[in-house]
Amino acid sequence: MPAVRLRVLHIEDSEEDHALVSIHLRRGGIDADIYRIDTDEALIEALDEEWDLILSDYNIPGYGGLAALDRVRSSGKLVPFILVSGEIGEDIAVQAMRNGANDYLLKSNLARLAPAALLAIEANRTRIAKRRADLALSQSRQQLRELAQHLQSSIERERAAIAREVHDDVGGSLTAVKLDLAWIARHAPNPQIAERVQQALETVNHAHEASQRIMHNLRPAILEQGLVPAIHWMTDRFAKRTGLETAFRTSHETFDLPAGVPLVAYRFAQEALTNVSKHAQASKVSVDIALAGGVLSIEVTDNGKGLSPEDLAKARSFGIRGLHERAETAGGWVDISSNPEGTTLILSVPLSGPENGFIDPLMPEMSVPIAETDPDDPTKWGTI
């Protein structure tokens, strides 16, 4: 079996012990290019190079194995580190393993050195592969979030365009018709015509109010005042429209939220209240906004009939799938719980995390870049 070639950095003050370590590595089938150092300054310089393995004595005059371990780990180098010492207590060994050492050996038992080194290197390769896989998964999730946010932005832009059309064309035309009907009503030659004109005027008023509701649903301009006033206003309107007893609570009067989050939160509350009015058969509903531990949460709770186990299992009924998809565009998620006494929907959005750029401290050269934002993106509406 051919020898395994490795570049080994050996932190050791004794030339004799260094030679002994080299011999045991060769006996174990490792053809090592082994370099000895014995100071922190030399270690700092050596860490600019690439190493397959680092071995370190525990007792070095003016230095120590644990200090060397801390230096290696703080550098971000993901290199196997084995502590080798003439004497080492169990408490020191445990501390070394907790600090990131891969193994520890006594100099009186160097027959274990080569197998321990190969095992540490293999475990380190597995660790690196896992980190790279985790990073690739994080990047894929980031790309999916960006794609979902782009799609959502496109939808919101289209909704905004439709809202403008409704406001400028439909709204303007209805206003003109109202003025004309009002003039005709004032100048009607007989009561019958005046009555018919008044009925037409009421119909136009209803149509105008409907166009206003459509514009609001398409583009919630109220968000420009902030998330808390917007959802407070929404719950007040919901209470007046449905007659349900509605409570609104917030942990803060204002929130400093990343772009895109206010719109996601507003749409979540809007859809959750719509589900309550359509399906819950409730008499009470509460909306709570809170910020704790860097996570924004919005909780909508009703005292209705609850969801059946079949509905909960499907998790697609009553617009719940749409809630999940919308939350994911902001890096959040939706939790749902239900029983015969009511249903609770909770939106949770971390305000910092992988969605804002993933950086692996041990592999800083690989990171997920933070996406630049578009100032004209409708998902920025309501950013405080």
Describe this structure in words.
- The structure is a single chain.
- This protein folds into 2 domains: 129 residues, Response regulator (Rossmann fold, 3-Layer(aba) Sandwich), CATH 3.40.50; 165 residues, Heat Shock Protein 90.
- The C terminus is likely disordered.
- Helices cover 50% and strands 19% of the residues.
- Strand 1, helix 1 and strand 2 form a beta-alpha-beta unit.
- With 384 residues, the chain is of the alpha/beta class.
- It contains 10 helices and 12 strands.
Task: Please supply descriptive tags for the structure shown above.
384 residues; alpha/beta; 2 domains; 5-stranded parallel sheet; 10 helices; 12 strands; 19% strand; elongated; disordered C terminus
